[in-house]
C-alpha cells in the first residue's frame, strides 16, 4: 500500500478505507493476524490520506461502543503511532503532519 497508493483514484481511497473498516468489523474476533494486518493497512492509509481528517476519532466512533470490538480499536491505536514513528517509507513531512494533526490532537 505504501508504494502503490497513488495509483488509486482519490475518490476510491475512501472506498478502500470503508472496505478495510468493514473487514475489521467482520473479523473483530479474530484471527489476530488478520486484525493486525487490517489495522496496519488502515494506519498506513491514515498516514497517506490527509483528507481523512480524524482517523482516530472515526475508529473510536466505529469500534469503541462495542465491547467485543474494543481490542480492534486498541490494536489500531497501538499501531498508528508506531507507523508514524517508524515507517521510513512514508515521507517525513507526511509523518510529521499526521503526528501534529492526529496524535497530538487526541
Structure description:
- The chain is an all-alpha fold and 106 residues long.
- It has one domain.
- It is built from five helices and no strands.
- It has helices at 10-26, 32-48, 55-63, 70-86, 92-103.
- Helix 1 (10-26) runs antiparallel to helix 2 (32-48), helix 2 (32-48) crosses helix 4 and helix 3 runs antiparallel to helix 4.
- The model has no long low-confidence stretch (mean pLDDT 82).
Nutshell version of this structure?
By secondary structure, the chain is mainly alpha-helical.
Q: What is the average of the pLDDT values?
A: 82
Which stretches of 5+ consecutive residues score pLDDT under 50? Answer: none
Secondary-structure class: mainly alpha
Radius of gyration: 13 Å
* Helix count from the secondary structure assignment: 5
**C-alpha end-to-end distance:** 25 Å
Strand residue content: under 5%
> What's the β-strand tally?
0
User: What percentage of residues falls in helices of 4 or more residues?
Assistant: 55-70%
Amino acid at each position: 500500500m505504501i508504494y502503490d497508493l497513488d495509483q488509486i483514484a482519490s475518490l476510491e481511497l475512501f472506498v478502500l478505507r470503508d472496505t478495510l473498516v468493514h473487514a475489521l468489523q467482520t473479523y473483530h474476533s479474530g484471527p489476530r493476524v488478520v486484525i493486525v494486518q487490517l489495522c496496519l493497512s488502515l494506519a498506513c492509509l491514515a498516514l497517506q490520506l490527509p483528507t481523512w481528517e480524524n482517523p482516530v476519532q472515526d475508529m473510536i466512533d466505529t469500534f469503541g461502543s462495542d465491547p467485543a470490538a474494543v481490542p480492534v480499536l486498541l490494536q489500531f491505536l497501538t499501531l498508528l503511532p508506531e507507523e508514524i514513528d517508524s515507517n521510513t517509507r512514508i515521507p517525513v513531512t507526511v509523518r510529521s503532519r499526521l503526528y501534529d494533526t492526529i496524535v497530538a490532537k487526541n
